[in-house]
Amino acid sequence: MQSNFREIVEALVPFLQALGRLQIPHYVGGSVASSYYGSWRRTQDVDVILDIRPDQIRTLAKLLAQDYLIDADSWVDSFRHGQPFNIFYQQTFTKIDVMPLQTAHRKEEERRAQPRTLLAGAPAIRLSSAEDTILAKLRWYIATGSSQRQWADILGVIARQQQHLDLGYLRAWADTLRVRAELEQALVDAQLGTT
Fold it and tell me: Are residues 56 and 11 in the same domain?
């Protein structure tokens, strides 16, 4: 992995250790996951999805205060409204997008997340599965008005993971998430086929 991953892992480790200490279910998705499973690209932030209660946020914020720029009141307010929140690792100003785990797919994604080693010598980090990474990227592709960056991430994951992808799972959730047509096009574009 590229040098940007070292910066990302360094920014994530104290945050993820605090989540573990408080036994808050979580996983990392987004471009970190698509870079791991597909084609590496420099990323500007890290997506961490977690199942946190509002009453846990202040305790977590206190644990993180030494290493991160964080506003606990804004975080509580954001999560009460189902909105993401940003924290920044003070040493590198790496942005971490913290998202609430609130949809059925996000809960399934968290259940399927597995520890992966992103950097030799660093602790393993729970990443969303390749399939769930594709599904999340498909949703972002649509939400961003057909972003070519998202599409390239999707194709990269499909191309590198094609022998291991659970197409039944992908198609079932693509139907539920209303991204089936985009999934089928991605499979064709990545030369995996639709059968």
Answer: yes
CA distance 90 to 69: 6
Kindly report the pTM of this predicted structure.
0.89
Q: What is the pLDDT of residues 162-192, one digit of tens each?
A: 999 999 999 999 999 999 999 999 999 998 5
* Residue 82 counted as domain residue: yes
CB 140 within 8 Å of CB 99:
no
The string of pLDDT tens digits covering residues 85-138 is: 999 999 999 999 999 888 888 889 999 999 999 888 889 999 999 999 999 999
Report the 10 Å Cβ neighbour count for 170.
23
Which of residues 87, 106, 127 is at a domain's end?
127
Distances (CA, A) of 100 to 104, 136, 187: 12, 14, 29
Do residues 31 and 122 share a domain? yes
Backbone φ and ψ for 38, nearest 5 degrees, come out as -130, -125
Residue 195 lies in a domain: no
pLDDT tens figures, 2-35 = 557 788 889 999 999 999 999 999 999 999 999 9
The parent domain of residue 93 ranges over: 3-127
Q: Answer yes or no: do 79 and 138 share one domain.
A: no
Q: Residues 172, 173, 174, 179: what is their CA dihedral angle, to the nearest 10 degrees?
A: 150
Two structure tokens written together for 172? 């079932």
Shared domain check, 94 and 137 = no
